[in-house]
Amino acid sequence: MLRSIVKGFLNSGRSVSRTAANYSDTVASGSVVEQSDVDEPVELKSNPYDKPARKCLLCRTGIDLDYKNARLLQQFVSNFSGRVYDQHVTGLCDMQQKKLLQTISTSRKAGYMPILVKDPKYLKDPKLFDPLKPLRPHSFA
Amino acid sequence: MPFYELTLITRSLSKADLVKALVRAGNTLLNQGAVIEKVESLGHRDLAYRRIAKQTNEKVYTSNMFLFWTHMSREMRESVDSILRQDLDTVHVGIVTNEEKEPIECNLEELLKPPAERQAVKELREKQKMGHFTRQIVFKRTEKEWRSIPKSYPIAPPRY
Ligand SMILES: [Zn+2]
Q1: Got the DSSP string for B55-96?
Q2: Do residues B56 and B128 share a domain?
Q3: Residues in chain A whose beta carbon is closer than 8 A to a beta carbon of chain B?
Q4: pTM (predicted TM-score)
Q5: Structural domain count, chain B
C-alpha cells in the first residue's frame, strides 16, 4: 500500500515537472503571471486599463515650496482666521503638507509672512481649493 | 561650513546710514569668520508685521530687507545672530538653513481611497498599532461608559 502511494506521488511529480517544462518552452513574458497549463486563461500582473495615479497640486506642477515665497504660502492660509488649512482641505499628500507646515513656520520666523493673519494684499489671490468642499469629511487629526 | 541664508531687516534709514549699517553687518559676518557668497536687496517693502526699532521705539511698517548668502559654522551662527540682533539699526534677523531635499512620493491616491482599503487602516486593524495617548483615550472612554452603567437600581425592581 505504502509503495503504491509513493509510486503515485512520484508519477504525479513527474507529470507536474513535464507540464512546467512545456510551459517554459512556449511562453516567456514578464507581464504575464506563470500558469501551470498552456490552455488556461492568461492572467496579467497589472491592469493595462488602470488610470494613472492622481497627484496633489504641488507634486503635479512640480512647484517647490520656498520660505521666501510668502505669497504662495499664504494661498494655503485661511482668509478669516489666518491659520493654515488642514490636509483634507488643501488636498496635499502627507509629505507636502508636512513640508508646507515647516516652510510656513520658518517663513514666519524669518519675517516674511504675518503670523496671526493673512496679508490683506493677498486676500483676492486665486483660490487653490474650496474649504467648503473638502476632499475628505474630516482630517481626524 | 553649512550654508545659511541671513535675512536682515533694517529700520527706516537714509541712504548713507543704510550703507553704513549694511557694511557693519557684513563686517561682523566676516570678523566672525563667515564667508559671504552673495548679498541681495529684497527692496523697500511692507513688512509682514509691525516691528519696533530699538532705542527710538519708532514703529516700523515698511523698510529695507536684505538677504545674505553665507557659509558659517554652527557656533558662528549663534554669535552672529546675537551681535546682529543687538545692532540698533536692525529690526529683525532671520538665519535659515536650506534643508536637504528628500524625494517626495505622492500618496494622494492612497489618501483618496475609502478607509477600509487604506493600508494604514489595515495595519491599524491587524497589528492593533496604537499610540500611548490614543490608547489612554480609548481606556478612559470605555471606563466612562462602564461607570455610567448603574450598579444598583434607585428603585428596586418589582418582585414576582
Ligand atoms: Zn504630493
Answers
A1: TT--EEEEEEEEEEEEE--HHHHHHHHHHHHH-SSEEEEEEE
A2: no
A3: 53-56, 59, 67-68, 70, 87, 91-96, 99, 102, 106, 108-116, 119, 121, 135-136
A4: 0.74
A5: 2
